[in-house]
Amino acid sequence: MYRSFIKRLMDFSVALAMLAVLLVPLLALMALLAAANRGTPFFRQTRPGLHGRLFRIVKFKTMTDETDERGELLPDERRLTRVGRLVRSLSLDELPQLFNVLAGQMSFIGPRPLLPEYLPLYSAEQARRHDVRPGITGWAQVNGRNSISWERKFELDVWYVDHLSFLLDMRIIFLTLAKVVRRQGISAEGSATMEKFTGSGK
């Protein structure tokens, strides 16, 4: 009952309430990021959701579009703005995903939606992370986030799929708040974000 109906109802209700309460701060943050990025405050990208169906995720943009002499984007750590670094460290870049939650493309809690190019790289077991809606935060995020390996992250994602419950979701919410306050696991070691997944060799 919780997995099939109550979870979705709670997602929709809470997302709607949060957008109403946070409207003014969101508009202020949009203006600040637009100035820092010298352009749009939003980052949109196609991601796989429930059962691998593609959708457009929306986040606050924390990097510029600066390129090198060959026209290729500079490394993440060089494009990450000061404002963007602060926004990312506080996980405020995730707030626009409330619209994805309203649309039913995401949940508050679930495996993070990754890149479509990773789909053929998953093992059959890893691909089970798509048996539930992706989330703004999840079991892997509160157990290391970007500081753990891809393989460990997928193990945690699949564990969540198998153990999804109201009590587990509440635990993840409280642990997420603690992680945000402590600013833990934002980046992989030696990188501003997370290195790309290239397969597990399974």
Element pattern in H and E:
HHEEHHHEEHH
The number of helical segments is 7
User: How would a textbook summarize the main sheet?
Assistant: 2 strands, antiparallel
User: Structural class per helix/strand content?
Assistant: mainly alpha
Seen as an oligomer or otherwise, the chain set is single chain
The number of distinct β-strands equals 4
Helix content: 40-55%
The share of residues in extended strands comes to 5-15%
Walk me through this protein's architecture:
- By secondary structure, the protein is mainly alpha-helical.
- A hairpin with a 5-residue loop joins β1 and β2.
- The protein starts with a helix and ends in a 20-residue tail after the last helix.
- About 3% of the residues have low confidence.
Describe the structure concisely for a colleague.
The chain is built from 7 helices and 4 strands, in the order H-H-E-E-H-H-H-E-E-H-H.
Q: Which helices and strands occur, and which strands form pairs?
A:
Blueprint: H1 2-21, H2 23-37, E1 42-48, E2 54-60, H3 76-79, H4 82-89, H5 98-102, E3 107-109, E4 135-137, H6 150-163, H7 166-182
Parallel strand pairs: 3-4
Antiparallel strand pairs: 1-2
Features:
202 residues, mainly alpha, two-stranded parallel sheet
